[in-house]
């Protein structure tokens, strides 16, 4: 196994530059249309940009660079298109509106520092497995196979969970009720669980030998965001006020899919 540190510096710097350019464009769009939830669309696109940069500039195993590009490209473009459809024609995300209101003072500066600037380090850190593996040589094909399987499970949970929720919301008779069918019967957050699987699967695909092993901190960070920070926990606080949600919490697993508890 070999690892090219000088090429890694180039790949990582180029990835960071790509993130800065993408977020700058996103911020310009957000300020021009008067809503900053466009950054949610950029989240998925940011990883696609990084995957493309690492595939082109990396000098590691070609098959891994191309495989990662396909996996992250498919996941990121699906996520970006889904977020675009959900936000199109709607107002600001309540999370960002509350953030700007609570901060007070200069809302423009707050949007730049608290919404856009925070995305950059997160994108860069979570994508470290892509950056490191792009300049690494050494095949652990069995881990790559397991990783692809985990990735498929994750994308399936994300895609099916989102489709089931979209159909549920499209039915006016479901207004004011809690979605507890399909995958939502086994976990309260199938899309977030799927997202975590995507990144653990990607990590396994990217892992060869040292120093790719230490990039396990990236999927750990992503899982933390999804479970405890900006993902499921934040959504739970919003949903707890909805009638029937506390009963749903009592019978349905929080994150990992499990058979529902009996009433």
H/E series, N to C? EHHHHHHHEHHHHH
**Which strand order spans the largest sheet, edge to edge or round the barrel?**
1-2
What kind of sheet is the major sheet? 2 strands, antiparallel
Q: Rg from C-alpha positions? A: 19 Å
Query: How far apart are the termini?
Result: 55 Å
Estimate the global geometry from the Cα principal axes: globular
Query: What structural class results from the helix and strand content?
Result: mainly alpha
**How many domain modules?**
1
Organism: Williamsia phyllosphaerae
Transmembrane segments: 6-31, 38-56, 62-80, 140-160, 216-235
Protein name: Steroid 5-alpha reductase C-terminal domain-containing protein
InterPro entries: UstE-like
Record the SSE blueprint.
Elements: E1 2-3, H1 5-33, H2 38-57, H3 62-87, H4 94-103, H5 107-116, H6 119-126, H7 128-133, E2 136-137, H8 141-170, H9 190-206, H10 217-228, H11 232-239, H12 245-251
Antiparallel strand pairs: 1-2
Task: Describe the protein.
By secondary structure, the protein is mostly helical. It has one domain (about 1-250). The chain has twelve helices and two strands. The chain has helices spanning about 5-35, 40-55, 60-85, 95-105, 105-115, 120-125, 130-135, 140-170, 190-205, 215-230, 230-240, 245-250; strands spanning about 1-5, 135. Strands 1-2 form a two-stranded antiparallel sheet. Helix 1 (about 5-35) runs antiparallel to helix 6, helix 3 runs parallel beside helix 8 and helix 3 packs antiparallel against helix 9. The protein is globular, with a radius of gyration of 19 Å. The chain starts with a strand and ends in a 12-residue tail after the last helix.
């Amino acid at each position: 196994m070999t690892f090219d540190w000088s090429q890694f510096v180039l790949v990582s710097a180029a990835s960071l530059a790509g993130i800065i350019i993408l977020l700058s464009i996103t911020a310009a769009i957000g300020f021009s249309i008067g809503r900053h939830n466009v950054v949610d669309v950029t989240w998925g696109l940011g990883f696609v940009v990084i995957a493309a940069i690492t595939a082109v500039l990396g000098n590691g195993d070609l098959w891994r660079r191309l495989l990662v590009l396909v996996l992250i490209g498919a996941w990121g473009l699906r996520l970006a298109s889904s977020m675009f459809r959900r936000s199109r024609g709607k107002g600001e995300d309540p999370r960002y509106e509350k953030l700007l209101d609570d901060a007070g003072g200069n809302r423009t500066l707050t949007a730049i520092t608290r919404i856009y600037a925070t995305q950059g380090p997160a994108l860069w850190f979570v994508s470290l497995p892509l950056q490191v593996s792009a300049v690494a040589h050494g095949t652990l094909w069995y881990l790559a196979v397991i990783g692809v399987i985990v990735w498929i499970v994750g994308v399936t949970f994300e895609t099916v969970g989102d489709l089931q929720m979209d159909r549920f919301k499209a039915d006016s008779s479901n207004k004011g009720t809690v979605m507890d069918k399909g995958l939502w019967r086994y976990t309260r957050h199938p899309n977030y669980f799927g997202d975590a699987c995507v990144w653990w699967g990607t990590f396994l695909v990217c892992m060869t030998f040292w120093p790719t092993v230490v990039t396990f901190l990236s999927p750990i960070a992503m899982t933390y965001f999804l479970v405890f920070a900006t993902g499921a926990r934040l959504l739970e606080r919003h949903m707890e006020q909805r009638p029937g949600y506390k009963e749903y919490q009592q019978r349905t697993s929080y994150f990992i899919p499990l058979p529902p508890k009996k009433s």
